[in-house]
UniProtKB/TrEMBL annotation:
UniProt-recorded name of the protein: Phosphopantetheine adenylyltransferase
ATP-binding keyword on record: yes
Enzyme Commission number(s): 2.7.7.3
Cofactor: Mg(2+)
Lineage, uppermost ranks: Bacteria, Bacillati, Bacillota, Clostridia, Eubacteriales
GO terms under cellular component: cytoplasm
């Protein structure tokens, strides 16, 4: 069984993330979506909320498992028995950062490789940070995130 892991903060999950999830789920028997629980990072959604949102929007993809982790990705990969790490690339600037992370992960765990999927062109401009900013100014985010996520973003924005 080939197992992949697509790690990220997913704060919030966007259509760009879903594009990578759907495409990479076709490459593996099982695909873990590893939601990073990084206490040093100020997230809009808790790790638990992000896990639940991703479970909701991926419920029809039968080989996807949504989980959270903290610590090193190279160690998480070993715990779940993943064969590869999946990363999405929007632009050359993403690659410069991602190649360093991939090389570090490979140095920490030589058994696992990183594969890259380029984001579909209609999502190349999309980032969670931009979506959060639009939501905080009460803008319409329905073009960028699934309906369940847009609803939760609106809730959060109204509380601030």
């Amino acid at each position: 069984m080939k197992i992949g892991v697509y790690p990220g903060s997913f704060d919030p999950v966007t259509f760009g993330h879903l594009d990578i999830i759907e495409r990479s789920a076709k490459l593996f028997d099982k695909l873990y979506i590893g939601v990073l629980n990084n206490s040093a990072k100020k997230s809009m959604f808790t790790a638990e909320e992000r896990v639940e949102l991703i479970r909701e929007v991926t419920k029809d993809i039968t080989n996807v498992v949504v989980d959270s982790f903290d610590g090193l990705l190279a160690e998480y990969v070993e715990v779940i028995g993943a064969d590869a790490i999946v990363r999405g690339l929007r632009a050359v600037t993403d690659f410069e950062y991602e190649i360093q992370i991939a090389q570090m992960n490979h140095a920490l765990n030589p058994r696992v490789d990183t594969i890259y999927l380029t984001t579909s062109t209609q999502y190349a401009y999309l980032s969670s940070s931009i979506v959060k900013e639009i939501a905080m100014y009460h803008g319409d985010v329905t073009k960028f995130v699934p309906e369940a996520v847009a609803y939760k973003l609106k809730e959060k924005a109204n509380k601030r």
